[in-house]
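Schema walkthrough. Field components (list of strings):
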Amino acid sequence: MAKILKKEQWSESIFSMLIEANEVAKAAQPGQFIILITQESGERIPLTIADASPEEGWVQIVFQVVGKSTYELSLMNEGDNLYSFVGPLGIPSELEKFDGKVIMVGGGIGIAPIHPIAKKLKEMGNHVVSIIGAKTSDLLIMKDKMEKASTELIIATDDGSEGTKGFVNQVLENYLEKEKNVSQSWIIGPPIMMKFTVQSALKYGVKTFVSLNPIMVDGTGMCGACRVTVGGKTKFACVDGPEFDGALVDFDELMSRQRQYVEEEKEAYHMCLNERRA
Amino acid sequence: MAERIKPAEKFKRERTPMKEQAPLERIKNFKEVPLGYTLEDAIAEAQRCLQCNPAACIAGCPADVRIPQFIDKVIDEDIEGAFLEIKKTNALPAVCGRVCPQEDQCEGACVMEKKGKPIAIGRLERFVADKARELNLKDAEPTRNANTANKKIAIVGAGPAGLACAADLVKLGYDVTIFEALHKAGGVLIYGIPEFRLPKSIVGYEVEKIREMGVKIYTDYVIGYVKKVDDLVEEYDAVFLANGAGAPSFFGIPGENLKGVYSASEYLTRSNLMRAFDFPKYDTPITKGKKVAVVGGGNVAMDAVRTAKRLGADDAIIVYRRSRTEMPARAEEIEHAEAEGIQFELLTNPVKVIGDENGNVKALECVKMELGEPDESGRRRPKEIPGSNFTLDVDVVIIAIGQNANPIVARSATGVETNKWGYFVADEETGKTTHPKVWAGGDIVTGAATVILAVGAGKKAAKSIHETLSS
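Field assembly_structure (string):
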């Protein structure tokens, strides 16, 4: 059981919650994730940690409502208890003081997991350039936190309602066209965004790390649901990742595997909405 | 109260059968297949026991259950006495009565086995445990002991090994804490073994009894991430590692990452722990194949294929590279599967999973095998028959070919040696590892084995921990 300490709605479908989880908060490092279950009949939902306070004993999660489970999570309120909350899971990001600049690219909900990595890199004395993007201004999250965690912050929206108009990969290419002193980059967002942004970075010879979010069950290496192909080899994202070298990831397979339960998810969400209306 | 019958009669009487759900009925539900003994059945069976002394059956039991003693109390209808007799050494009787391979253990050692009709010890153990649960019988109180009460033991993993070790130590008065990675305690009893073989309410009950004895169980607590084994070594007087094997093996053949290919662990975890068989009442989905191939010949393969049948598969097929005689699954499991209409493609090995344009499984390409010379395990080594390839049209493929060692716990344990496969090196008799404060047992030492061997390992470790801490 873990209590929801604070809940915020950031857009029509994006929510943030601070979850009371003392030991998780103490152990959490950038790049790691948690798994939660809303109620006894619920499924295990993996979410990357957006922030954590070991002093205050909370972990921040950010999620978008995409189906029944995230919808039910969004209906929970401050003071409610999650049925289960486990973490931190996965291998932390490998962070150091780099010679050149580091670039953080966050797309949509992917800005949340980019945040703790950027924050830590900046604390370590890096020059952190963050490029964050979303479809439209309303969906752009964590601007203030990213501002603090970055040396330079570049904003992009697909419709031009805020910052540069266009996709983050284009903004990244424009940046790399002018700036050659770049050591490494992290790119986190929907798989399609990661796929194209990795290609953009590689054009300029910049090494990329991505954080993968395949379907998971236990999240501790026990079931293999989260297998991904990296450099031609099968890896378990939960214990071998979730971060991998972007150049080596088979994104097409990842996207295909993420759609395994599309029909079941639709059915469950539909039934759930009908029940709520009734 | 029933009478003791004469030895001659004992030899004449047949083994008392246990009623089962009929095959055509049971493949439509997830309820338990064997229905258990009635009191009359149990007495009739208990009367057959020769009450040997010394008892070969006890020597055959990794949990040292005092078998003739409890069976004798069944004849007197003394359920409480029988229950306490079992509970002296075994904290999980309702579980063991169901899932132990008794034919290789107590029943295999039974003198009556020579006549081909060993005492049905497993069924009797199950009967006593189930009755005790119905009657809500209390366990014996743990010992209060000032010398042990201030000693703290940490156990990693709430599976059969961890639970057995915890129960024995708490009985001696130790302060015992179990750390479990999943959201429910029970390990393989909860996520692996299907409801129709081991109802989860029964596991929950026996775990609850262990909690009531004073064992603290923290679920959702992953050792290796939240705390290291090194931290536990600092904070506790002894640490028992019983985290299970827990990393599924795949073949590495083409198409293994197509949608519809599962490890048996994933398939069973979805259905058992997450109750995907009851989707959409429970939120976790599972692909309900119409034609399902399960690759492997062990108990886990049987569990997976029988689950597939119950999830509505018209064809549920075991694909196994050797012949039926080499199958490692229990005879009883294979017979249950056959009765349920499971098909067997023996001497067959997969070479490739074939997908459709959307990345879903549509067929499994296989090759026929023949048996050659015996290998180091003594079983005849299968080899491919060139050119014998054929395809099975299937929409789900489940890989049940065993497990590798999960690295999470081991990589946080300084000074605890692992072997080349990543399993902890531990003494077979005591569970001692290369670290003086750390013991290990169960599948993370032996590789995937049985529930009862894990229970036995947990008990041996408990004994050794007690000896070490009290000397």
